[in-house]
Amino acid sequence: MGVTRIRRGVHVLTSTAADGVLVRLAAERAVRTLGWVLAWSPADADVLVVCGTPEGAEADAVERVWQQLPGPRARVRLDDPQDVSDALVAAAAALEDRAAQEGLAHDADMVAQMSTQGGEDMDHAGMDHEDMDHGDMDHSGMNHDQMDHSHMDHGGMSTGGPAGIPLAEGASKDRDDLEMDAWHVVLGQGLPGWPAGLVLRVELHGDVVTDLLVLAEPTPHGRRDTPVQAALLLDAAASVLDLAGWSLAASASRRARDDVMEGRDPAEVAPRVERLARRMRRSVLLRWSLEGPRRRTTGDAPSAGHLVRSRAIGLLEAAGSMLTAPERGAPAQRPYDLDDLPALAVGQELATLRLLVAGLALDARVAADV
Amino acid sequence: MTEVVFWVAAVVSVAAGVAVFRTDSMARATYALAASFVAVGVILLAFDLDYLGVIVILMMIMEMAIMALFMIMLMGMNPALMPMSMVHSKRTATAIAVVVFLGLATAALAIPWPGRSGAPAADLTRSLGEAVMGSKMLVMLTISPVLFATIVGTLVLGHPRDRYQRYGDDLDRARPDDPIEGGVGR
Amino acid sequence: MSEVTEAGPLWAALAPVALLALATVGAAVAHTQAARARGEAALSGVGLPFVESARLLRQRRRVTVAADRVLWQVAIGGLPVVAVLMAVVVPVGPVVLVDSPVGVVWFNAMDVMLWALWWLAGWGPNSAHSLMAGHRFLGLALAYELPLMFALTSPAIAAHSLRVADLAAAQQGLWFAVWMPVAFLVFLGAAVAFASWGPFAVAAHADLAGGVLAETSGVDRWLVLVGRHLVLAAAALMAVPLFLGGGAGPLLGPVAWTVVKAVVVLAGLELVAGRVPLVRPERFAEVGWMVLLPATVLQMLVAAVVALGGAS
Question: What ipTM is given for this predicted complex?
Fold first, then answer.
């Protein structure tokens, strides 16, 4: 691999199964050292890295995400963190393979053609096509179907819209006293900073969340070594920071995470993490943007933005203290849980829900916590 | 050159105007209307009415961008997102359109328009400003606040969330009860 | 009236290329900052705009189901076009492409065009995330546009003209940026906002999976990304005659000074990306209407009083 020059700036999308979290960390580290970039959506990606072994509906979702990569594209599936670098280099080579890419482009055209036909056949009981293209088992967050496709939910309203996409349904009044049409979006694999194994079905009025259903919940894994656990917390903090728009801080958190995973002396990394936590705590703009202009008084119920901010700082502080004093283990902190998500997110914008989910740090959740 | 610009813009404005009613999508109808207005703005520019032309483009794009949202938000049952006809009450509308067109066309052709009796000012923007604000200053100073107050008043009356809802019946809440807190906290 | 000459058609053909060159400098600055944050060597980001361009130009276009292709393409192709149209009224030294007597209003009209383009870029692909991002941009636009209009008006009042060259000439003694700091800062902030960049990148951000970029790939994505840097470059160029004395400066000559000032402003605009969190439109609305709007109106009052004092 040392002989050929490896392309720079390749965009990589990761899709992570329940058993693939540590592989993802290794993959993201390799992406960074190669000078590559993490993609924000399938349309942005050249390489799809499937970490772990997706099963059942999850495997379908991965397939769907793969179909949405524009191409030239390459896909690698990884089980072992050791294989990551070689596999990525091979993927970069596959991007240059003209014959293979032409074949993939042909496949993509076939799929696109079928999905258009599926839309036209819709009115003539085209349920087969429907299940294939717009099925409710769609776990990819990035699918083009805006509306809800499960016919049971529609009651009397089953008129097909364009391309077989059903119309949104009328809904009761929302937080602003508006009677908007509700639409449903399934959030899952393919979104940046999304935890492995979680699938949410969200009902929206515009971009305001009005209902939330957990379709699939990640299974927590066994207890891990302290440095690994600290790295996972740093990873979760980076996700929150990325979604909050503070990407330089997110990069700093990811670098600390990678240094820990590379086996760097934790005592060396810890001060950087603590400095980052301090910067976050001091940032007036972060507080104002997430929490609003006022400081919370003790009587108030915590708002979603408040929880996200304190959680993100908490993640960094926990990681810092685990790195300084590994023997103490993970400090217990969990300002909110997956069960609290509907109560916190309903009435908020979808972007806030994304921050709340990232703040859950589900990839770092261990079985004993549950 | 001016004539070429005029005719191209004129054809575009009429064609885009027709497209407003021929297209089957709310978004396309709205932006076809915007394109029509932009073409009208270009015609004004070709007449050397720089300020008016640019302002027409500016205001109409802004207005249509917001109108598209209202079209989609308020249509109900979501037809805004699906193909639908942009015309209704066809017969009445056709009758009115034909009568109005004939009337205006007759007027345009029949009225003995006066010939040009002076030369355009060197700085048309300045003379426009003086025409509007010079001798009519008192009128403008009266009308503008009244118009502005009407807009604000309508919004205040029409908005479902008034200050009593936000600050309580006695307006004694320390902070407003808003679904999402604003950036200043008022 | 200050003397500027309108450039010939040859220069008009060259202008988009020149603006693209300026935008490339801006993109290189932004990429360098991001690459350094990822831990790459100090100057490795300089080449990234070219690497990224090559990547996107050989990528296939993604087609979504029931997309509104026409409006989508209008938005994608419109971004670079509007950026160039923004820049045509800006004099570079003694030369300007269009010596419009209402250049300031023209610039304003072009930035309003971006309202339509960002929303259409969100509408086109028929995707939930893109549509929400387009809507969200308009929410932000309603908050920044009026302060921006008043920020553009203040220098025009002080110079008694809407012609951009007159504005530059009116700052012989003191730059407008010095005695109109509010208008200057609002202009810079609004430039970041209408380019949907940095803390105001609401139309294209990770929290909505890239927003209007969520479904865009290949040459389409390239045009949007390049269009964004072009808009920033055009705004930086406009800041020079509006607030920074135009081409005035010792030794170098007016063309060089215009370019130098524009590059400095552009670098500042590009470097804001990633340094601060995203400003959420629902929070910013109150700031725009209740803080920035009165502040810019007061700024305009100051400019008007000074202008009247100078006239009498």
Answer: 0.91
